[in-house]
Amino acid sequence: MKSQLLTLVVAALMSTLGGLSRAAGEQTIPPGNLAGDAGAVQLHLGEHFDPYAGGGPPPWDRGPIARGPTAAAALEGVQAALRACGSVAAAVLDTAGQPRATEAADGIRGWHIYSATRKALTAVALREPSSKAIADAAADPTVAAKLGANMTTLAGAVPIWSKKEFVGAIGVSGGRSGEEDEKCAVAGAAAVEAALK
């Protein structure tokens, strides 16, 4: 009984984290996903357990994919922001606020990635630089209603456009000021936009 319960708990955890694939009656975690580079870990769950019962993709993989920059363009954007400003962190998000690329300079504190992401979330929600959020929210209650718990009104994020279409935002954190972060974000957005042409 304890073995079955442990198997179900592990399977539920793995399903939640993603990365499970079906293979000949067992669940396999690919190398590099929780198992490290040593190889795949196999969970023999038996015939009674099927996390995909009912067919179709897993519930977290349903629905349309948000519009956003390609992974290569997003990576170019965060790297351009780091080249422009040195010791900062940057995050590029798609139109749904999901990360496409993040990077932090060596020696910078890890929380700057989180701060850059929160700034970019604000720019995604408002489709304008995060530095404008305070004034716009004060002037218009509908703008204030768009601001969520994981967003910040600190300067340092700008939207990204491709062929006049909104594709996401880039946020930067770790500069000497929010204004400097925003200049770095502008450099990163320009690199993404150039890569998407």
Summarize this structure briefly:
The chain has 197 residues and is an alpha+beta fold.
Task: Explain how this protein is built.
- The chain has two domains: 2-61, no CATH class; 71-195, Haem-degrading domain (Beta-Lactamase, 2-Layer Sandwich).
- It has six helices and seven strands; from the N terminus they run H-E-E-E-H-E-E-H-H-H-E-E-H.
- The protein has helices at residues 2-17, 71-85, 111-126, 133-139, 141-146, 178-195, and strands at 21-23, 26-29, 41-43, 89-93, 99-104, 157-162, 165-173.
- The strands form two sheets. It has a four-stranded antiparallel beta sheet. A three-stranded antiparallel beta sheet has the order 1-2-3, covered by helices on one side.
- Helix 2 runs antiparallel to helix 6 (178-195).
- The termini are far apart.
Q: What order do the helices and strands come in, and which of them pair?
A:
Blueprint: H1 2-17, E1 21-23, E2 26-29, E3 41-43, H2 71-85, E4 89-93, E5 99-104, H3 111-126, H4 133-139, H5 141-146, E6 157-162, E7 165-173, H6 178-195
Antiparallel strand pairs: 1-2, 2-3, 4-5, 4-7, 6-7
